[in-house]
Amino acid sequence: xxxxxxxxxxxxxxxxxxxxxxxxxxxxxxxxxxxxxxxxxxxxxxxxxxxxxxxxxxxxxxxxxxxxxxxxxxxxxxxxxxxxxxxxxxxxxxxxxxxxxxxxxxxxxxxxxxxxxxxxxxxxxxxxxxxxxxxxxxxxxxxxxxxxxxxxxxxxxxxxxxxxxxxxxxxxxxxxxxxxxxxxxxxxxxxxxxxxxxxxxxxxxxxxxxxxxxxxxxxxxxxxxxxxxxxxxxxxxxxxxxxxxxxxxxxxxxxxxxxxxxxxxxxxxxxxxxxxxxxxxxxxxxxxxxxxxxxxxxxxxxxxxxxxxxxxxxxxxxxxxxxxxxxxxxxxxxxxxxxxxxxxxxxxxxxxxxxxxxxxxxxxxxxxxxxxxxxxxxxxxxxxxxxxxxxxxxxxxxxxxxxxxxxxxxxxxxxxxxxxxxxxxxxxxxxxxxxxxxxxxxxxxxxxxxxxxxxxxxxxxxxxxxxxxxxxxx
Length: 474
What we know:
Layout: E1 2-9, H1 14-22, E2 31-38, E3 42-49, H2 55-59, E4 70-76, E5 83-87, E6 90-100, H3 103-112, H4 127-136, H5 141-151, E7 154-162, E8 165-169, E9 179-183, E10 186-190, E11 202-206, E12 212-216, E13 219-224, E14 232-233, H6 235-240, E15 246-247, E16 250-251, H7 252-266, E17 273-276, H8 282-292, E18 300-302, H9 316-325, E19 327-329, H10 331-334, E20 338-343, H11 350-361, E21 366-371, H12 395-404, H13 411-415, H14 420-433, E22 437-440, H15 443-450, E23 457-458, H16 460-463
Parallel strand pairs: 14-23, 17-20, 20-21, 21-22
Antiparallel strand pairs: 1-4, 1-10, 2-3, 2-4, 5-6, 6-7, 7-8, 8-12, 9-10, 9-11, 12-13, 15-16, 18-19
């Protein structure tokens, strides 16, 4: 996915950019960039790989070279960015959180118009540079940003540093968040409200779907108002979001706990304790313990001194090893117990299968899994929240293919809670993972936990739905 933090202030912004960006680190693992702007010295930029190091360790030694009262940092799972542009709109830097599925088609169209793409990496188009080219086709930044919204398929939120302030534009359907913060003498925009408290920013409001806002040190100007239609990604609350972050004013941890409470109240499976797979399964497990009335125990912990988050090596077997190494079970708690564990989702199932085997090796009598979202039956074409190259990497689709001979057959039935197809699929997932039992959250429970109308929340990966037209007045 990715995350952005940008700020504009009456004084130096460097420290705020550095620490604010770091608080978006859980959103990406590949690359990071920082850029600042000073009216005398211009732009200062640096980009580093994150595949072997963390954001702070890569940029800390360079901080003295950054100068200016406005700047931004970006954590990216895609291309090297920010990109610095000199165009008829003036000098500017742009960073994106984007997943553009028709990248090649747009690039071919631009090349036919004799527009050039220079930021190539491993023969891959830099989508942020392509976004910049589309912006440059407008007579104003607003016109150019709307050109991006019009041309792309997928999603794209962006922050732009200009010589006349900072521009924040949220994805046309609001799939990915941007939130504005403010303190004395400064404004900020971030993918995560988690960036704000320790830097003394107060959350002002979310940028709306398709909204374009200009920030200056002393105020905020709406350049284009928000659209009514919205499709914010439900997976932000399930997995991506840091527990203290809020989107649309809705806190991530609160959603996870509410969802867990509903799962616990409905579940009549006898059990001695519940634990959460760190980090994103913990909130659901705390709620489940409350709803079911059994104790929450830390039966498995993440080794935070050297595994504070998941690195993603390119080699699949090494990814599996990394996933195993960071989690350590507590045999003293597991031995002889009927254990329920909560996790955020099941994608391939590899890591969860290893966890189940480890629990039994530690003496657990029974191991039950409760998953805080419905089964992932459809790949995500909008923000690309998994690294899957094919829908067949999803354990659900492999099972459907085994059952039906075609992984695309009867998907609606398999995605609907309680159908014979759904029940058979869930039972088979549990069997392949070695579980005593397996249950998933219902989509109705997830939506109720979030507290927004379903047609404003994207649930495509669960039920294949896109947006509805109920609120589409544009």
